[in-house]
Structures are given as structure tokens and as C-alpha cells.
Amino acid sequence: MVNREIVGHVVKGGLCFSATLLVAFGSFCLTRPSDAQSVTWITSEAITASAAYAVSDTGVVVGFGYFPDYRQFLPIRWTSGAGIQILYERQGEATCVSRDGNAAAGWLSVENNPRAFYWNQDRGGVVWIDDSPNWRTSVAHGISIDGRVVVGHAVDREYRERAFRWTEDRGMEDLNVVFASILGGSLLLRAYGASEEGGIIVGTGIHNGVQQGFVLNTRVPEIKWGLNEVRAVSPHGDVVVGSESLVGYR
Fold first, then answer.
1. What's the pLDDT tens digit per position in 143-165?
2. Counting Cβ atoms within 10 Å, is residue 157 exposed (0-12), middle (13-18) or buried (19+)?
3. CATH architecture assigned to 131-250
4. Please, what is the average pLDDT of the chain?
5. Which CATH number fits domain 1-108+116-128: 2.120.10.30, 3.40.630.10, 1.10.10.60, 3.40.50.300?
């Protein structure tokens, strides 16, 4: 299925890249069903600012909104029929959503520190991903297409970043521990995306002493390094996108 929707945020018609302009944000959903385009603003009387981070194939958008009554930014889920839904009444963001829009993940503030969460429509409420005292903070960055695998990063008690994978069955796993046998001393710092069933995980780490992106095949297992970071992967795991620093490029 081709997703024909684009989400994001603008300030008075122009693109905005600065968090300092957040009070002027209004998130939107740009739809192109055929040759026609339309913009739907994700807003309500209850919020004064919003940002959209991800959209499902079914048109479910997730992100955050600022609610003056709470004096906080809260994680939200939006559909064209139901409008804005607060996922949890605590400061945070919903950063990713499954293909069908029924599962989402992100982070919530707990004692002024971010903690990763998982939300499922059928269950209701949220599940804390880092349920161990070994972690200071955690953030969920990506979710598999089927909504069963969440990836992100956590900071341990020694202030070290570690990429993680979470499932309901196995809980939160440090990828550096699970796949230590193939890392050869390299470190996986942040996991940003996962393929259809979570078999391929991408992110950024330290390899040969420098920051590099990684593509981790959890089924084989094997790992490939390249770019500065890898931010997303296609459903079948055969295409990845990321960024590279072009030193000396003219």
C-alpha cells in the first residue's frame, strides 16, 4: 500500500525547524488521494500548539499537543473521524505508529526524565517499556509495521547510551547484550526504525572509533555499517535512509 499522506508542522505557511517557535505550531496532514491535494489541520479548541511525527497507512497521525488546561505537552493520536485523543495525561510525545494505527510508542516525563512507553488501542492505557531500575531515561523512536516491536535508546546508571528492542513477550532488551557476539567491540547507541516484523533494526552507533549507522539483521544475525546514521527502513528491510557528513564537499 502506498501511503499518500504527509505530516508535519508549519508556522504561518512556512516550514519551522526551531523548537523556540513551538507556540506558533499547528500540525497538519497533507493528503493526496489522486491528483488533488488537501491540508487538514490537526487542532482543537483544547490545544494551542501541536506537532505531527508519524502517520499510519490508515491515516492515523501521532505527535503531541500543548493543552493549556494541563500546562503541558501531551502525546496525542488523531483520526479524521474522532479528532484528537490524548494517549496519556502526562507530558510527552508519541513518536511512532504502526501500519494500522492501533499501536504507538514514544516517551513520557517521569520526575523530569523521559521514559519510553507503548500504547495499544485494544488494551487501552500505556505500558512502561523500561521497567527496570537499571535505566535512567529511555525514548522510543520507532515501531515495527505490525506494532509488536518497539526500538529506541536508553541511558543506564553510568550514563551510557544503549540501543534497545522491546516486545511484550521479552520486555526491554539491550541490543549490545543480545548481539554481543557479532559486534566485535562496536556499540549500538540508538535504534530508530524496524522493518515489518522487527527483523531488521536500524540506527546509529560507534564502529571503528567513529559514529556510523547500522543495519542489524536480527534473524541471521548480522550487522552492516555505513553512513553517519540510519533513520528508517522499508517494511521488507531492503531499503534504508539516513544521513552522511560530506567532509570537504564542494
1. 999 999 999 999 999 999 999 99
2. exposed
3. 6 Propeller (2.120)
4. 86
5. 2.120.10.30
